[in-house]
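Before drawing any conclusions, I looked closely at one protein's amino acid sequence and its backbone structure tokens, quoted below without any editing.
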Amino acid sequence: MKMGRSQGTTISVKVPIKYSVMTDRTQQRLRQIVGRDTRAIHAFLGIIEEHEDELLKGKKDTRINAAELDKLTMTAIKVKEGYEQRLTVPHDMKERFPRMSANELQECRKTALQMYESYLELKNKNGRRASRPCTRISSSRRIPRWVFSQRFTLIENGTHVARWWLDLRDSLDSVPEGRRIHDRLLIPLNISPFHTNQFERGEIKALQIFTDRMSKWWVTFAVRIDKPEPPADNLPVAVLGIDLGIEKAACTSLVTPQKVRENKYFVQEDKVERIKELDNLVAQLQHEMHTRKNNGNPHDEVAARLRKLKRKRYRVAREYDRFMVSQMLDYITELSERYTLYVAIGRLKNIRYTARRGNYKGRRFRGMIHSWAFARITETLKHNLEQLGWPVDGKGARFQVVPESWTSIMCWKCGNKGRRPRQNLFICPTCGNRCNADRNGAINIAGRLITLTSSLHDVRGLGKWASAVARRARPKARGKPCASRRKSLLSKQGTSSGSGESAAVHHVQTDLLSYGDKAGVGDHDHAVARTVEELAVAGSDDPG
């Protein structure tokens, strides 16, 4: 989660509220505050939607002009010298919500702005359909506002009720009562050692109070963590390519200027079996629900069980993904101690389209593709690397999401198109390379990052590194030649030598790919492909 004008990384810490031990007055005030915030945020969203054309700004129209929104919603009586008063506005929010303080209205406005700008970002993406926040959010759902650090304090006061308390300023406007000091609400929290460790990583900047589907109360703290030192850049350069798969959760390949150093597979067989089991249960309940619905029988109970089972499936998949990302982070941290490491992961664009109906790959393949959350793994890995001090955005980014098109079908050795007789097998008919398909894709993904990163082009290398650098500058496409240039002046001879033809007619073009990792062995040699599959050390390209 990123907040406005953030120069660091912000994490969220979710803490349960001891709602049952609160006094009746505090419970009532908390419900009133959250309910009033929801109504105010809905009102701001409706105003933004009504005046969207007037409020849009930015090159891509993905931002809302907050100053113009204030002119529509907030009066200004006490103003600085040189500014005009606004005694009336088209949508007076203070008149609509007279018991809300000005600070609470501003925080509700900021929350509505963030929600609407997120919608505009999704809408701006090509082919991405997004629903407006006003229509997407049901009226019964509470929308929490961001409460900033000036209006709350986290205090430690051990009692028989709770050890940690949230001292929150009551947002009820005290001006009509002639008071300048707001009331305070003391909310008991159930904070564990894990939560305190997260708080110690940085500074608490804001919070949100909300309820889940089970009517349990929570508070989410936004913690701006201290920016750690970036990884060292005086070590040998290496690129780690990550290919996300299905049968194997992920495959990584470490490419150095000399050769492909090592490969690592992340396998989650228990996840595959568990997801299949839950998918079968979901399918059974769906069949039962549709049968009852078609026969005119009540099906509300089955629908509730189905929703509960789908949520359980989501939680199971998310936990497995978090565990795999944690393993990847440990591996990346270990490699960072030996190399100046760059990490590339494939962007699976239109992967869902390949699993559409009518592609003759079967329901099982469609189910596996649609149930895997590739974007969640990518975003989680990026967020965790950013917490470790890695630059993940901009020119000097050490983590990049690269296009994955053709990486799984092109041979990493010779660059020609191969074939995949099975999901996990890649065969190149040109050079004879046979290897795991995920490994082939991971190496190509690493090579693509080398091609796209100009700072790596000055590093001289062999094998895959050299071929990736050679692709960095391709000649621009020329226009159609004129009629006099279309016909070749050469003789129309085939590629094979005819009788009496001189050997000088044929030539061998030497390129960087012909130089292997060892002297005397070329990457085009079929023996190299056979040697690669018989490794003396697991994960190494060196057979010796």
About this structure: Residues 237-473+520-532 form one domain. The longest strand covers residues 202-211.
